[in-house]
Amino acid sequence: MVGGFIQDGVHADAIGFTQQIFEAFDPPAGYRRLSPRFEKLAVSDDIVFELHGNMRWAKCFECGRRFAFDEIVARLGEGVDIPDCPQCRGMLKPDVVMFGEQLPHRVLEEASRRAMASDLCIVVGSTLVVYPAAYMPIYAVESGAKLIIINLGATPMDQQAAVLIPAKAGETMSKIIEKVKGKAGI
Ligand SMILES: [Zn+2]
User: Fold this and answer.
1) Is 105 a catalytic residue?
2) How far is the CA of 92 from the centre of ligand 1 (A)?
3) Per-residue pLDDT tens for 79-115?
């Protein structure tokens, strides 16, 4: 199973890498119907699980509806002081998990389930010290998956890694993707 867990939703690079990995491997059912633009991929709730949300969306405190952040910024530009929810006039906040807030239950549950069902878990650019995101590779390894860690610094799971690459995540992923594409003839 191929899956992507984005710990920090603002890392567009990580989403881009996930997308390229999907393209290099046999894509999951439904993937081809998605737009190649990563914004669309990111909001697909079946492929990428953004545990901490992302800044491309704003969410209403009252009714829970989501709105593109660009729309909200546009209203600011039109002179609206504090843009509220167009549906219920509730207060809006960026759709990211703030310090002290609970992670979205469904996203966390599905990410955990996929981690437990995975054959391979690749950790890219994480020190694996922020929970519950750091549980994902633990679930994967405990369920028999191989673990690859690409991170410049040490992590608490280095000993469990089948492959440990202590290097910069962005540079390393670019090289890996080139190699995978070469092998796949893309
Ligand atoms: Zn609302």
Assistant:
1) no
2) 8
3) 888 889 989 999 998 888 777 777 778 888 888 999 9
Domain boundaries, the chain: 4-52+105-184, 54-96
Domain 54-96 has CATH 3.30.870.10: no
pTM for the model? 0.66
Instruction: Return the CATH number of the domain spanning residue range 4-52+105-184.
Output: 3.40.50.1220
Say which of 52, 56, 59, 114 is annotated catalytic: 52
Cα 34 versus chain centre, distance: 16
Q: Ligand 1 centre and the CA of 117: distance in Å?
A: 36
For the CA atoms of 104, 110, 116, 121, the dihedral, rounded to the nearest 10 degrees, stands at: -80
State in Å: Cα 13 to ligand 1 middle: 31
